[in-house]
Amino acid sequence: MADQFFQGSFHDLQYGVYGPKESELNLLGDVRGKAILEVGCGSGQTLEYFAMRGAGELLGVDLSSKQIETARKVVSRFDIPIHFIEAPMEEMDMLPESSFDIAVSMFALGWTVNLEKTLSHIFKALKSEGIFVFTWEHPIYSLLDYADGKLQFRLPYETEQFEYHESWRAVPIVMHYRKLSTYINALIKTGFVIDQLIEETRIPENDTSKPEKWYSAAKARMLPPSFTIKCHKP
Q1: Distance (Å, rounded) from C-alpha 5 to C-alpha 44?
Q2: Is the full-model pTM beyond 0.90?
């Protein structure tokens, strides 16, 4: 289903569904000349965004060969070093040490089956004072269903677990549910210094999404669909 995910170029980075944008938050700053790593690069739109803004070198890691194939095409017109690694994010041992100014993961980090190991690879690959920004679905939002005109929890937040979804784009997936504190504590344990936690929503006035949808304005008005963390390697 990789070909379903390319939907055009990014003119701005949006931190999650209904989330604020990079032009507003300025979490990454000036990327000109910077070496940037993307964990879960998908079909390459984020890498393209950085290339258009003058990044000096890019490296994308993704599990899917088809996603990487698309990403290569998306960034092929840029005359800067752009590399790709096909690997699970838990197995990024081959990343060069202390080589990147910025690392990002846009709605990908939560797929990891080993959060601590994945974070250790990112930490090792960053230069001193390098920043890491990631966004993922908010752990509480993931546990909510809308039924009979109201929101209700279908799983307890306190119990971390995984759940099978049989019909997401007609392809079975496994979702891992972690508490927000788990992400924060794993970052601290790895050695990162946390600079900012963002739990904000930006709901368009003309949004007419049905409340039964996974992402809907009705749910987003109650809880942020995503969270974003900015941290750095000291």
Answers
A1: 10
A2: yes
